[in-house]
Design brief:
This protein is an alpha/beta fold. Strands 1, 2, 3, 4, 9, 10 and 11 form a 7-stranded mixed β-sheet that branches. Strands 14-15-13-12-16-17 form a 6-stranded mixed β-sheet. A two-stranded antiparallel sheet has the order 5-6. β14 and β15 form a beta hairpin. The chain is globular and about 60 Å long. The model has no long low-confidence stretch (mean pLDDT 95). It binds adenosine-5'-diphosphate. The site of adenosine-5'-diphosphate has 16 residues, from α9 and α10.
Length: 423
């Protein structure tokens, strides 16, 4: 049987899923990072051990039927390697804002409102490495997923255009723009990765890795993607107008569209997905605020006492600290959590209703800026299991709200490996 392996490196752990060509799951494995993956100097070896461990947990009889493998990583987690692929310094994680130190240089290089104009973008991190590290030997600049795939195929300096978006790669012309090449030119310029479409077959598995784990010699390693796009792919959404809302610690929306929308004023950007665009934005509101006030058991219990058809008049902007970017762009936006009723059910109703309003406003903004009209919303993340919340959200979104069969990013990446081999 032909099987396909997807490997997901998320924020707190790594997972793998093996599927067949019908999309049926044959095996899932999991690895949790100690210390939330934050111990920086040792991170590459933590990731490498996680990769080998995930593969080792897959039964040998499944491993030897794997035809293709793809890996996703957290967006804008980047690293600098020598010409042998060995990291020369600690990786810089997705949420590391040290790039704020190079804001002026970044603004001078990049066009107005460009996606890279953020302290956490891959380009900001590259500029930081140039300005704050003395490097004379040649280096390669890689994303987390690029490096992990390199461990499997041994070809250094390959990326995909989902990971490379926040580096400034132009997905319209499929090349690095001149403003980027000229802006980073200098003595300490690392080699930028060659960028291919996500899922593109790159190279057969290295003989050493194939022999160690019992992969067949022609098992292909395909280009990967980012963890949040992988989660979108898992949902199976493929029609313009359909969307996925992720109700995890934060609220993230992604709408499939014929048209591209990019506006760094609201943190809105578009990923290329075949001939379509995945237009998205992320708010700081979401499940972390719910978890601040309620346990998961309370969330379940109190939710069942809420009538989703009844409107709560409590108008909050639930945040744990000031500031949001999407759909309201204001770094000083204060959390609004008053008035707080003594009845916990009423308070929760107000919170769920208010987050639903922010979600609906987010989709409205994407459409106002040119994305396709919303037709259906799938929900992923911890909030997806709350059917009362889905009812409230449906009232605001005015389209069907459904839970997809598959939500794991590793499943989406396995689909990518499968399509890479069959398209
Ligand atoms: P992440 O991966 O972003 O940390 P998850 O997708 O694991 O988050 O979702 C966790 C979030 O789900 C928590 O912040 C929690 O508040 C929320 N959550 C858990 N159970 C419920 C529920 N029944 N209703 C609404 N939200 C819930």
């Amino acid at each position: 049987m032909n099987l396909y392996l997807g490997i997901d490196f998320g924020t707190t752990g790594a997972r793998s899923t093996v599927i067949d060509s019908q999309g049926r799951v044959h095996c899932e494995t999991e690895y949790t990072f100690a210390n939330n993956g934050q111990q920086q100097p040792e991170l590459p070896s933590v990731w490498q051990n996680a990769l080998w461990d995930l593969i080792e947990q897959i039964p040998p009889t499944i491993r030897n039927q794997v035809r293709a493998i793809a890996i996703d990583g957290t967006s804008s987690t980047v690293m600098l390697c020598n010409t042998d692929g060995i990291p020369v310094c600690e990786p810089i994680l997705y949420n590391d804002a040290r790039g704020a130190a190079v804001t002026e240089r970044l603004r001078a290089i990049a066009p107005d409102n460009h996606t890279v104009l953020s302290a956490t973008s891959s380009l900001a991190k590259l500029l930081w490495l140039q300005d704050f590290r003395e490097e004379t030997a040649p280096t390669f600049f890689l994303h987390q997923a690029d490096w992990l795939a390199f461990l499997l195929h041994g070809k250094l300096g390959i990326s995909d255009y989902h990971n490379a978006l926040k580096l400034g790669f132009d997905v319209d012309t499929l090349c690095y723009p001149n403003w980027l090449i000229e802006g980073i030119a200098g003595a300490a310029t690392p080699e930028l990765p060659q960028v291919v479409a996500p899922g593109t077959p790159v190279e057969e598995v290295r003989a050493q890795v194939g022999d160690r784990f019992g992969f067949s010699r022609d098992c292909m390693i395909c280009a990967g993607t980012t963890d949040s796009i992988a989660a979108f792919l898992a949902s199976g959404v493929n029609l313009p107008g359909e969307a996925v809302t992720s109700l995890g610690s934060t609220l993230a929306v992604k709408l499939l569209s014929h048209t591209r929308v990019d506006d760094s004023r609201y943190g809105i950007y578009s990923h290329k997905l075949g001939d379509l665009w995945l237009v998205g934005g992320a708010s700081n509101t979401g499940g972390a605020v719910l978890r601040h006030f309620f346990t998961d058991v309370e969330l379940d219990n109190y939710s069942t006492q809420i009538d989703p058809e009844e409107e709560s008049l409590l108008d909050y902007y639930p945040l744990l600290k000031k500031g949001d970017r999407f759909p309201i762009n204001d770094p000083n936006l204060p959390p609004r959590l008053e008035p707080r009723p003594t009845d916990s059910v009423k308070f929760l109703h107000g919170l769920l209703e208010s987050i639903a309003r922010i979600e609906a406003r987010g989709y409205q903004l994407l459409q106002e800026l040119g994305a396709n009209p919303l037709t259906k919303v799938y929900t992923a993340g911890g909030g997806a299991k709350n059917s009362v919340w889905s009812g409230i959200r449906k009232r605001y979104l005015k389209v069907p709200v459904e839970t997809p069969v598959h939500t794991a990013a590793a499943y989406g990446t396995a689909l990518l490996a499968m399509r890479g081999m069959t398209d």
